Amino acid sequence: MAVRASGVRQQSIWASVVSDDAPALREWLLALGFTEDLMIPGERDGAIHHCQLDWPEGGRLMLSSTDERPTPCRPGTSSLHVVTADPDAVMARALSAGATVVHELVDQTDYPSRDFTVADPDGNHWTFATFAG
Prior knowledge:
Layout: E1 14-19, H1 22-32, E2 35-41, E3 48-54, E4 60-65, E5 79-83, H2 87-96, E6 100-107, E7 114-119, E8 125-129
Parallel strand pairs: 1-4, 5-8
Antiparallel strand pairs: 2-3, 3-4, 6-7, 7-8
């Protein structure tokens, strides 16, 4: 089966992640290479109402503490795909941050990608890949 892609990179969808320990997840994501754009503290001590984290190569993630605002999202139920030109460097940062490896860094044979998947402290799966569609 041939893989067809438009070649158009789409970076305008923002993922939303909810965490039981959003400050710890925020620190973990910053260690992987995300940068903080906006931080709104939560109602409870140590909670995050809304945090926007940008991926340097494009895209944005919204993070909030569990029960900080109405959402059907629950911790540990997300699976996210992050495009990067250098998955080896991100893998090194993920390992330094204590990430749990779900799938080792590999060169895919079915489609053009070098990628790996790790689990964050809440159990969400993050795939970092060269494949951008």
